Input
Amino acid sequence: MKTRRLLLLLICLVVRNATGQVQPVGGPCEGCEAIHESPVPFDKLTSFLKMPDATWTGNKPLGINGTVYKADGKTPAPDVVLYVYHTDQTGRYVARQGARGWERRHGSLRGWMRTNEQGEYKFVTLRPAPYPHADEPAHIHITLKEPGLTEYYIDEFLFDDDPLLTATKRQKLANRGGSGILKLKDVGNMYKAERPIYLGRNIPNYPAPHR
Output
């Protein structure tokens, strides 16, 4: 009986791989499908992204980098696609004329990366502003896509020095993928911050790591 069950499991895995089906994780996620709007095929993406607003003229740009780790919390995860988007310097999501798909909602300050063999990612942008006339902290949205799993969102990038990020709001964070709170460092010509990302951490229905 045990052998038969093992064979059935193997057959199911083969069929799933053959049909290209992926395991749903993360729960409801409005707009996460925008990750598939990348103008570059996933396998051609690099680990570095320069966002459309990144400039060294005027406000100092912000460089965010980190390593994505597998569910064991220590093994770097290559080939993970990251989709990020945020508001402009007025706190609004502004789309280009003629924008289509989710760009009309997310605005044109968005982009895609894919972790390298060391699980690393990096992007450069300008620090976004919070929504006008609101008390929500400034943030950068992020969606992930791993091989074999559906896309899912993790905690937004937030800023430790943001007065809108109150103690109450910090306590309510789900820490999906680990903490997203950034501590900025002024390195002269730009600000830098680092965020490690842990796949599956606090993500509903995420498969247990192999032992």
Observations:
- The CA atoms of residues 8 and 14 lie 10 Å apart.
- The radius of gyration is 19 Å.
- The first strand starts at residue 48 and ends at 50.
